[in-house]
Amino acid sequence: MTDRAALAALTAEIVACRRCPRLVEWRERVAREKVARFRDETYWGRPVPGFGDPEARILIVGLAPAAHGGNRTGRVFTGDASGDFLFPALHEVGLADRSVSRRVDDGLTLIDAYIAAAVRCAPPANKPLPSERDNCAPFLARELALLTRVRVIVALGAYAWESAFRAVGAVTGEDLRPRPRFGHGAAAQAGSYAVIGSYHPSQQNTFTGRLTQPMLREALRRAQEIAGQRST
User: Fold this and answer.
1) What are the Cα distances from residue 167, in Å, to 73, 75, 85, 130?
2) 122: DSSP letter
């Protein structure tokens, strides 16, 4: 069983983090200045922890919170266009109890899934620096270590793919280089974990048709299939 007290303590540690001056300045400035459509809302403006089912067999990893999504709501993929694409797919395959998530208190429940970001603060232009990635990397590794039932990691994008292998290496002490090549539908072994690749559900991919709902659902179903096999 997952040590829920330890997971809660890690969540609190993530939320309090101020390791990266550039990210701290950016996330807090965005929270102060806002955008017109959210001008009456109070922004979270802090690092965004992972969330979901503590007994999940599937860990879904994204890049970072959106400036006016997770940085506003306090939950990754919540209240932004990427989440508007991701949650219907999760709901369709049975990994979420609803298809829409706009607020942290909207009652969304993940089923057998946990979602986290490789970098916990919204970065300028969605591009963390290597030093910021490295500062954040231990959080994902520690989450993975605490989520003892996880069998499969779904990496949303090449950045998350790399971060997943780094996290597994940190947990297991294995040198997982060279990395398998990322691609949508790619499947690879990382220590005792399976890693499934999917294009990130950003508008850059969804508006162009590079990622469709059937494609994303297929990647999630593949993760469920592998997780089920490894639990028997």
Assistant:
1) 26, 21, 26, 15
2) P
187: which residues sit within 8 A by CB, 6+ positions away? 194, 195, 196, 197, 222, 226
Cα dihedral across residues 201, 203, 204, 210: positive or negative = positive
Report how far residue 178's alpha carbon sits from residue 123's, in angstroms, rounded to the nearest whole number.
27
DSSP secondary structure code for residue 37 in this structure: G
Closest by CA position to 52, among listed 186, 124, 147 = 147
Strand 113-117 and strand 51-52: the pairing is: antiparallel
Q: Output the pTM of the full model.
A: 0.97
CATH 3.40.470.10 is the classification of domain 4-230 = yes
* pLDDT tens per residue, range 70-96: 999 999 999 999 999 999 999 999 999
Which amino acid belongs to residue 165?
F
Closest of 87, 105, 100, 98 to residue 41, by C-alpha: 105
pLDDT tens sequence across 32-51: 999 999 999 999 999 999 99
Give the whole-angstrom CA distance, residue 120 versus residue 48: 5
Place of tokens 């208190």: 105
Task: Give the integer Cα–Cα distance in Å for 78 and 112.
Answer: 18
**Residue ranges of the domains in the chain?**
4-230
Strands 58-62 and 152-156 turn out to be parallel
